[in-house]
Design goal:
181 residues, 9 helices, mainly alpha, globular, Tetracycline Repressor, domain 2
Length: 181
């Protein structure tokens, strides 16, 4: 197996471990064990646990960007926003991706994590705006609804009150038109 293939295995293992326990609670030993490599080899691939955490977090955010890009292909405006919102719903069911994202926000006390998170968020925000052509207010509402969906999915509200969740989560993620007063 090549170093690139092992690096990919480590990232995959790190995503799983960090999703379970976050930056602080995850040991590099657990990541190395899951990846089937030694801990010293892990550090030959990634200089620090923090560096590996950032790569894992960025990979998760890239998955969201990729899904939004595919979903909005050939669409603009509210149709693009609706398609991206609908594409996000299955991602919420990926508990690993969801929890990694939430652990990333929780680790923003680390300046490097905070900077990487800002870059990723800005990239997704700008992508949504570019793909949809929506204005800042519409994109901001779209992103806010996405964060509401994250929070509700993390708490697994669907198992407690499915009708309420249906009304909230499964309605259009495209924002209502903004009216000027």
């Amino acid at each position: 197996m090549s170093a690139d293939e092992r690096r990919e295995l480590v990232i995959r293992a790190a995503i799983t471990e960090f999703a379970l326990r976050g930056l602080e609670g995850t040991s590099t030993e657990a990541i190395a064990k899951r990846a089937g490599i030694s801990q010293p080899y892990l550090f030959r691939l990634f200089p620090t646990k923090l560096a590996l955490f950032i790569v894992a977090s960025e990979r998760g955010m890239q998955r969201i960007s990729d899904e939004f890009t595919k979903a909005a292909e050939g669409l603009t405006g509210a149709e693009a926003l609706e398609a991206m919102g609908q594409a996000y719903m299955p991602l919420l069911e990926d508990r690993e991706l969801l929890m990694l994202q939430l652990h990333t926000y929780a680790a923003c006390h680390e300046p490097d994590v905070r900077d990487a998170s800002r870059r990723c968020w800005r990239k997704i925000y700008d992508l949504v705006q570019r793909l949809s052509g929506a204005d800042y207010a519409e994109v901001t509402l779209f992103m806010a609804k996405g964060m509401l969906c994250n929070t509700m999915a993390a708490m697994q509200f669907e198992s407690v009150d499915p009708e309420w969740v249906e009304r909230i989560l499964h309605q259009s993620l495209a924002p209502a038109p903004v009216t000027q007063h």
